[in-house]
Structure formats: structure tokens, C-alpha cells
Design goal:
It is a single chain. By secondary structure, this protein is an alpha/beta fold. 50% of the residues lie in helices and 13% in strands. The chain has two domains: 168 residues, Rossmann fold, CATH 3.40.50.1970; 189 residues, Dehydroquinate synthase-like - alpha domain (Dehydroquinate synthase-like, alpha domain, Up-down Bundle), CATH 1.20.1090. It is built from 18 helices and eight strands. Bound molecules: fe (ii) ion (FE2). The site of fe (ii) ion has 7 residues, from α7 and α12.
Length: 367
């Protein structure tokens, strides 16, 4: 994980890092309006001075390929030499691809192939997350929505790592409650999935469990009181650690199944992952006997069933739906979700073999 990470009230250092990266003109990639309304964008522009700034501020949640193309087009047309991703995972993912492509003639679509091929290094990139969940600031992944196929596609390449991640929890205090809940669940999914991923190893295990220690006691607090800066800070640290674990392991089946839930039914990403996570805890436990005790201990529960129930209870407490039917998804949709929920690399990374029948059963458990 080669990203230079700074944690704390560190946005003020962005000018120093941009100068270190040799920038003369930065493209800030961010989401629609929110960042401007809360003043963070204006503050960032001021902090980057004397570096010139262009802004691309129309990244939508779960961005489509057109958005990636547009960001790259603006980067080239305006002759920027640094990309800054500001916001949640979506703008940061778009910024990472634009930076990796840099001045090359490759298109974004060429990156979303398996395996991802990038013709040499692009431009430097700084990630500034304003949510606590996606971990995109420390991963080599970028995700594009593919509505035609009802799923998402991932790019995965070392050149997609940002050069610098400025993780400043104070930027999260204006995050709405629902976004806090959804992104917090994404961070929990990253921690648990990277812990049991086939590609996990002792270092990622440590990061994943430590992430849970920070997240689990603080997600309720951050949802109940948005200005609780201790809880916000713990959430930001937990999400960062979970992202660091994920950067080396990749996600597993819960993330894979989330893709059609988000693209077709509009379920927010973190919630879409967490919906099946309690069932996957029960399903995967027999395949990771050596790991279960430390997971239960970290979660403060005595059995696998209690762990699944604790997660479900947490979702209820932060106001999240726990059933597909609460989201308007009926049993007749399940075969379609099963068909579109197989991201091969993520399913293959699940510790226990997942078949269509298994996915069908798990979805019916949460119907
Ligand atoms: Fe995720």
C-alpha cells in the first residue's frame, strides 16, 4: 500500500503536498454541489494557491463511464498536472482513473478490463475523503457502474493508488446521517470481508480487526450525533484501516452481490453489502475455523449467530433496512440478482465456495 497517508486535521497541508508533487494546475474532481455548499471546495482552492485550479464537480454516486470520460477529457483539455479527488468513493474513483490515464491516449473503458492494463504512469493524485467508508483513498481499485449489464466493473492496478491521502475527520462532520450509516456499513464490510478473504494474510488481518475495534463502538454514536468529533475521528480511522486491509485482499461475495442491488435497485453501496453480511458470517464461518475466535472476540460476542445478530441489530439501530422487501425488492427479482451478482474475482476470493444456489438462499434469508 504505497500511499502516503496523513491522518488528522490535515487538509491545510494540501498545498505543501501539491507543491511536492510538482503541480502547477490541479483538477479537483468532486460531487454535485455538496462540497461547495459546505465550503470545503472553496477552502481547498484557497489552500492550493498559488497553484491554479479547475473544478469538475458533477460526479454522481456510483458513476457511469461517461463521467470517467468527461473527467479525463477536462484534465487533458485544461492541461492540468495534478488531480485531487474530494468527496466519497465516487469522485475519488473518477479522479484516480483520470490521473492514471493522464495525457495518454488510453480511454477509461480500457482500464475496466481484466486484467487492467495501463500504459505507464500518469499524473500525480491526492485523495481527500469526506466520508468514512469506501477506503478508496488507499486502494488500487476504481468502480464503474454498468447499467446495461445491471452490475459494476472494477479496475485494479497499482497505478490507481493515490500518491497522497489526506484523511481529515473534520471534513466528515457535515455528512448526513444516512450517508454516515451507509458508508459506515461499507467500512464494516471491508473489514470483515478482507479478514476472511482468501487473499488475506497476517498484516491485513491485523488491519481488519483493528478497523472493527474503531468502527463498531462508534457508528451508532456518529449517526446519533453528527458533531461528535471523537466518534467521527474513530470512524475515519476505522474506515481507513479497513481500506488498507482491502487494498491488499480485495472484497468477497457480499460486495459482489451488492453490485446489482445498487445498479438496478438503487440500494446505497454500503447498505447493499451489509444486507447479506450477517448471512455470510454464518455461511463462511465453517471455512475459517482458525479465524472465527478472533473475529468474535473483536466483535464482543460469544458465537457466530450472535455476531450475525449483532450486525443486524446495529443496522436497525442506525435506521437501516435489513430486508430486501423494505427496499421494494420482491422474491421474483432474486433470480435476476443471482444472475448478475457474480463478480468472478470477488466470488473466487470468498473463503467458502459460493454457487448460484447459495446466493439464492442467502437472498431469501433477507427477503
Ligand atoms: Fe465497498
Amino acid at each position: 500500500m504505497p500511499v502516503k497517508v496523513v491522518f488528522g486535521e490535515c487538509l491545510s497541508q494540501i498545498g505543501v503536498f501539491a507543491a511536492e508533487l510538482g503541480a502547477s494546475k490541479a483538477l479537483i474532481v468532486t460531487g454535485k454541489r455538496a462540497m461547495r455548499e459546505h465550503g470545503v471546495l472553496d477552502r481547498m482552492i484557497g489552500l492550493l494557491k498559488p497553484i491554479d485550479v479547475e473544478v469538475f464537480d458533477t460526479v454522481e454516486p456510483n458513476p457511469a463511464m461517461e463521467t470517467f470520460k468527461e473527467a479525463h477529457r477536462i484534465l487533458r483539455d485544461r492541461h492540468c498536472d495534478l488531480v485531487v479527488g474530494l468527496g466519497g468513493g465516487s469522485p475519488i474513483d473518477v479522479a484516480k482513473v483520470a490521473a492514471a490515464l493522464g495525457n495518454k491516449d488510453q480511454t477509461p473503458a480500457e482500464l475496466f478490463t481484466t486484467p487492467t492494463r495501463i500504459d505507464g504512469r500518469g499524473l500525480p493524485m491526492i485523495a481527500v475523503p469526506t466520508t468514512s467508508g469506501t477506503g478508496s483513498e488507499v486502494t488500487p481499485y476504481s468502480i464503474v457502474s454498468d447499467p446495461e449489464n445491471g452490475t459494476k466493473k472494477a479496475a485494479n492496478h497499482p497505478y490507481l493508488y493515490p500518491d497522497v491521502a489526506l484523511v481529515d475527520p473534520s471534513l466528515c462532520k457535515t455528512m448526513p446521517r444516512k450517508v454516515t450509516a451507509d458508508t459506515g456499513l461499507d467500512a464494516i464490510s471491508h473489514a470483515i470481508e478482507s479478514y476472511w478473504a482468501k487473499r488475506s494474510q497476517p498484516i491485513t488481518d491485523s488491519l481488519a480487526l483493528e478497523a472493527l475495534r474503531h468502527i463498531l463502538p462508534n457508528l451508532r454514536r456518529a449517526c446519533e450525533n453528527p458533531m461528535d468529533m471523537e466518534a467521527r475521528s474513530e470512524m475515519a480511522l476505522g474506515a481507513l484501516l479497513a481500506g488498507m486491509a482491502l487494498s491488499n485482499t480485495m472484497a468477497t461475495a457480499a460486495h459482489s452481490i451488492s453490485y446489482p442491488l445498487t445498479v438496478r435497485f438503487g440500494v446505497p453501496h454500503g447498505l447493499a453489502c451489509a444486507l447479506t453480511l450477517p448471512s455470510f458470517i454464518r455461511f463462511n464461518a465453517p471455512s475459517i475455523p482458525g479465524k472465527v475466535p478472533r473475529l468474535l472476540q473483536t466483535m464482543g460476542v460469544g458465537s457466530v449467530n450472535e455476531a450475525a445478530e449483532a450486525l443486524r441489530r446495529l443496522m436497525v439501530d442506525i435506521g437501516e433496512p435489513v430486508r430486501l422487501s423494505d427496499l421494494g425488492i420482491g422474491g421474483d427479482e432474486i433470480p435476476w440478482i443471482v444472475e448478475h451478482g457474480f463478480s468472478a474475482a470477488r466470488v473466487a476470493n470468498n473463503p467458502r465456495e459460493v454457487t448460484g444456489k447459495v446466493v439464492d438462499e442467502i437472498l431469501r434469508e433477507v427477503l
